[in-house]
Specification:
It catalyses: L-tyrosyl-[protein] + ATP = O-phospho-L-tyrosyl-[protein] + ADP + H(+). It contains 25 helices and twelve strands. The protein has 755 residues and is of the alpha/beta class. The longest helix has 90 residues.
């Protein structure tokens, strides 16, 4: 026994299969679902075809007349600019023309011309306005006048009677809608041609209506062209008058600007520009001269200010004639003094020479000072000339700027005057063209092929209705089949169960009839040992005994999600099969609330049951019931020994119950615990700790998938050793004919093995 809740080889604690896997779409699933719902799809297709036949039988033969119209789109832009006036059809796409052809105004003109209102009144109703809903409307078969005559309906109240004009207006609108309903317009590809068709039950009426529509359109275009041209001429005349006044005002502004400019400047701008150019050149020359004089002055003044400087080394001083003469005299005196070096310094000759030399040198400095003063005077004169020229340039620039501003204003006035003259002349020319075009107006469209009276009714409409109705019926049937399949949240195939739960299906137990008692099911197992039920139970036993690499389980718990899934019957069948194969087995009814196995227990109030064994007042041998026909041993709670003070969960969780299961596992080869559903009570989760393997029963095509997944989650939360799923009450006939996957034993040739 797995008394300590350790993970078992049968189960895992990993993730279950995903919902997407359980409901995944595959070609096999699509084909199988379609095959199972073939009768629904066939019935829906037949219903659609019958409805289509009913509609077709009520349809009146119709005729279609067709005309073709070419749209030339001649451009008559009388003003040359788009803002003046455009013909209604210029530059428009064919879709715009289609809107005009189906407009209420144009169709209203056709209604008035052909007196369609009177035509419809004479016929009572338009044949083209037939609707399928009329078949379900009682007024289609019984008129209101008839009902009023026999007193079922009273006369209409006075407020319901419309005024004559309002009634006529409504009739006219109904006639327009009738024309619009029968009218079809389509552009011819790669052309400016529109095909106009009208369908009616009267061939001649269809042709007349199409031709009337084309005539009304062309006449409307001519009227619109004439009106547009007239309005354009009037508009151009008003515009030309305004432009004439504008030209006159602009020319007056030009003349006034010219007079003002001449009075303010006194000379032309060209002369001012020449003067400014010459003055700027003179200013540049003076600035260059001033720079040269300044350089010479700075050189001589610096040299003169330095007493140690040899003035003869300065070029300006050296080149001065007076200084050159004085320097020559100085040189001569120096030579004479050098010749007398043999004499003492106080020699009279030498003293006289030195005195003369000092006078010469003083004369040189005086002359240098005069040169410096002359350069300073020259520099000042040049600066004054430069300032005068700068002032003259500024004056000329001021005059030039004033002249330029005046000329800018003058040129602006001249441009405005020129633009006004050009626009005025253009509008004059356009007015003449517009007046000439009044005699050349033509429509923007012409009829290429007028409508002829059709000779044969349209047959494609009935075929289309039949095909469409049949296809819609088939589509509805397919939709119903797949919708029902998607809405079905139950399990109907072994693969479905395994993909969704992640657990193997140990066996698929077939249903052998509706409303059978457990005793009858057991009898069926004995009567047909080679039947599908017996073989399915043996498969269940084989899967449990050899499905694990560990030792074969001895304590097996049966549980399910909800009641009524065949859990108790499956546990009985497993125990009986083990008994038949020579293995001792006992089944313990742990469902102490409903006591599902009570029908197989003898009703003896004095005989002890499961509670007596747990309380120690009776032995197992005294409490066990042995079925006389099968030899199956059953240990159950008897009705008379139910203890209201203890809950079933407490009993299963008690140490005494665990000791009892441990004792039974030592005595018997197989101990089967039939527990309540997982989602109902906690008994199964508690008993899971005592089990070597747990079989989870799922009823075929009945148990909701969410319930199964939730029940497995509950067991997984206590690390229950879930061996797998037992799919119960499988409808063998349904499986064999409905292409469910994973039911090999129910299909031939495998089915030949069973009796």
């Amino acid at each position: 026994m797995n008394l300590h809740g350790q993970p078992h080889a049968y189960g895992t604690t990993g993730e279950y299969g995903t919902e997407a896997a359980r409901t995944g779409v595959s070609l096999r699933w699509l084909a199988a679902t379609a095959w199972r719902g073939r009768w629904i799809m066939l019935a829906a297709t037949v219903v659609g075809a019958v409805l289509g036949l009913i509609v077709v039988s009520q349809m009146t033969p119709t005729y279609t007349a067709t005309a073709r119209m070419l749209f030339t789109g001649n451009d008559r832009n009388v003003a040359g600019i788009r803002e003046v006036v455009l013909s209604d059809t210029v530059g428009k796409q064919l879709n715009n023309e289609i809107e005009i052809l189906t407009s209420t105004r144009l169709l209203g003109e056709v209604v008035d011309r052909l007196d369609v209102v009177a035509y419809l009144d004479a016929r009572g109703r338009s044949a083209s306005s037939f609707r399928l809903a009329d078949l379900l409307d009682w007024r289609t078969y019984v008129s209101a006048d008839t009902l009023s005559g026999i007193g079922i309906l009273g006369p209409p109240p006075p407020s319901a009677l419309a005024e004559p004009k309002e009634a006529e207006r409504r009739k006219r609108l109904r006639a327009v809608e009738t024309l619009r309903a029968g009218l079809k317009l389509a552009p011819v590809p790669d052309s400016r041609v529109i095909q106009i068709s009208f369908t009616s039950d009267d061939a001649s009426v269809a042709a007349h209506i199409v031709n009337a529509i084309t005539r009304a359109y062309i006449e409307g275009q001519l009227t619109a062209e004439v009106e547009a041209t007239r309005q354009a001429s009037e508009w151009l005349g008003d515009r030309i008058h305004d432009l004439r006044v504008r030209v006159e005002n602009a020319e007056l502004k030009v003349e006034a600007a010219r007079a003002k400019l001449a009075a303010e400047a006194g000379q032309t701008a060209e002369i001012t520009t020449q003067q400014l150019r010459a003055t700027n050149a003179a200013l540049a020359a003076v600035r260059a001269e001033r720079a040269q004089v300044h350089v010479r002055y700075r050189a001589v003044s610096t040299a003169f200010a330095n007493a140690d400087t040899d003035l003869g080394s300065v070029g300006i001083f050296r080149d001065a004639p007076v200084i050159q003469s004085l320097r020559a005299k100085e040189s001569d005196l120096l030579d004479r003094d050098a010749a007398l070096e043999a004499f003492a310094r106080d020699n009279p000759n030498r003293v006289r020479i030195r005195a003369e030399l000092d006078r010469v040198r003083a004369s040189i400095r005086d002359e240098a000072q005069r040169i410096v003063a002359a350069l300073a005077s020259d520099l000042e004169v040049v600066r004054e000339r430069e300032a005068a020229l700068q002032e003259q340039v500024a004056d000329l620039e001021t005059i030039g700027q004033a002249q330029r501003r005046g000329e800018v204003e003058l040129r602006q006035f001249e441009r405005e005057a020129q633009a006004s003259r050009v626009l005025y002349e253009n509008f004059l020319a356009r007015l003449e063209e517009t007046q000439q075009q009044e005699t050349l107006i033509s429509p923007d469209a012409r009829v290429l092929s007028p409508a002829e009276t059709p000779t044969a009714p349209r047959g494609a409409g009935k075929k289309r209705v039949m095909i469409l109705a049949t296809l819609l019926g088939a589509a509805a049937g397919i939709g119903i089949v797949f919708l029902l399949d998607r809405l079905n949240d139950t399990f109907r195939s072994i693969r479905q169960v395994e993909d969704a739960t992640g657990l193997p299906v140990l066996a698929a137990l077939p249903s052998i009839g509706n409303g059978m008692q457990r005793t009858e099911v057991i009898q069926q197992l004995y009567d047909r040992p080679n039947g599908r039920l017996a073989e399915a139970v043996r498969n269940l036993r084989t899967s449990l005994l050899f499905g694990s690499a560990n030792a074969a389980p001895k304590v097996i718990v049966f549980t399910s999600s909800v009641p009524g899934e065949g859990k108790s019957t499956s546990s009985l069948l497993l125990a009986l099969t083990s008994q038949q194969m020579g293995r001792s087995a006992i089944i313990v009814d742990c469902d102490m609330r409903l006591q599902a196995l009570s029908a197989l227990v003898k009703h003896d109030e004095n005989r002890p049951g499961l509670l007596a064994v747990l309380q120690g007042t009776a032995t197992v041998d005294e409490a066990v019931d042995v079925d006389p026909h099968t030899g199956l041993m059953i240990l159950a709670v008897r009705p008379g020994e139910t203890d209201r003070t203890l809950s079933a969960a407490d009993i299963v969780a008690s140490r005494y119950f665990a000791d009892l299961v441990n004792h039974l596992a030592k005595v018997f080869d197989l101990v089967v615990l039939d527990t309540p559903p997982v989602l109902a009570v906690a008994d199964a989760r508690i008993a899971a700790s005592l089990a070597d393997a747990i079989v989870y029963a799922v009823r075929w095509d009945d148990t909701p998938g969410e319930a199964v997944m939730e029940g497995l989650r509950e067991l997984r939360s206590v690390y229950a050793p879930i061996a797998g799923i037992a799919l119960t009450m499988v409808d063998g006939e349904e499986v064999a004919t409905s292409a469910y996957e994973g039911y090999g034993p129910y299909h031939t040739p495998a089915g030949d093995y069973f009796s």
